[in-house]
Amino acid sequence: MKYLIDSANYTEIDQALRVGAAGVTANPSLYLKENVSFYDFLKDYHDKNILLTAEVIADDDEDLVRQAEKVIEISKDIVIKLNYSAASLKFARLMQEKGIKTAITLVFDINQAMMAINAGADYLFLFVARNEEIGVDGLELIRNISRIVESKGYHTKLVAASIRTKYQLESATLFADYIAVPYRLMEETFHHPLTVSGADRFADDMKKVLDTGEALAP
């Protein structure tokens, strides 16, 4: 399991990549929140040897292709991320033939997941918290789809998305290939109370050890 930083904030992304995040994913709402230029954002991160997604949204097939071509011009290694739809599945199949990787997002049930897998999508973004808002167990969805993928030998990678709590984060690690994590949850791992208290204790004891050593030195 690997982490993708789910953000368009440059400071958060750079910090996350430094501590081991395997890639960057964002959506139009995050780009808007951070007031970043979509294509400039892709140019800034496409050559960092990470998994980078670029969400493409269009009303018709031709516009979808035009937008994707702009992304591909930046780098053929960028994963084209598409909202689940008939047009997106047709596009995913077309890109598979061209060797361009795609991700289908806004996946909320097994039927959608299987349609996307059959269309040749390389990644599925499975939504946890948003599913739970309508009374569906988002974590159980990931478990069930991961069992299908494993038993059938599919190569599609599962990304647990819409992660909002520590419990969701920890549970998703057991079944997802990637987790799209907001920086807030990554940062929380550094502030576990027992880690903090243990580090303080070790720091105090190390100071005493060093002080004792200096006192005994000839």
Automatic annotation (TrEMBL):
<dbReference type="InterPro" id="IPR013785">
    <property type="entry name" value="Aldolase_TIM"/>
</dbReference>
<protein>
    <submittedName>
        <fullName>Aldolase</fullName>
    </submittedName>
</protein>
<dbReference type="Pfam" id="PF00923">
    <property type="entry name" value="TAL_FSA"/>
</dbReference>
<keyword id="KW-0704">Schiff base</keyword>
<dbReference type="InterPro" id="IPR001585">
    <property type="entry name" value="TAL/FSA"/>
</dbReference>
<dbReference type="GO" id="GO:0005975">
    <property type="term" value="P:carbohydrate metabolic process"/>
</dbReference>
